[in-house]
Design a protein that fits this description.
This protein has one domain. Helices cover 65% and strands 0% of the residues. It contains three helices and no strands. α1 (2-30) packs antiparallel against α2 and α2 (35-44) runs antiparallel to α3 (49-57). The longest helix has 29 residues, at 2-30. The protein starts with a helix and ends in a 17-residue tail after the last helix.
């Protein structure tokens, strides 16, 4: 039982790295940046500090040049 309690911080750290990578992947994809590259950089470079760097330096969301809800767009 003590061994499992001792491994708890390790599993929490691994889950934090995984969550950071997933968030960075989906955010980069939404913003038009290479998602695998951003995900790899966030996960491998001083996680979770690199996630905060990505959030601070990320570009604006890429918006389409027209309204997608407008059915008259040709």
């Amino acid at each position: 039982m003590e061994a499992l309690i001792g491994l708890l911080p390790f599993f929490l750290w691994i889950s934090l790295i995984g969550w950071s990578g997933a968030y960075a992947y989906h955010d980069a994809k939404k913003r038009g940046k290479p998602p695998l590259l951003v995900c790899a950089l966030v996960m491998l470079l001083f996680c979770p500090l690199s996630l905060f760097v990505w959030i601070a330096l990320r570009p604006a969301v890429v918006r389409p040049p027209f309204n997608l809800d407008d059915y008259r767009v040709r």
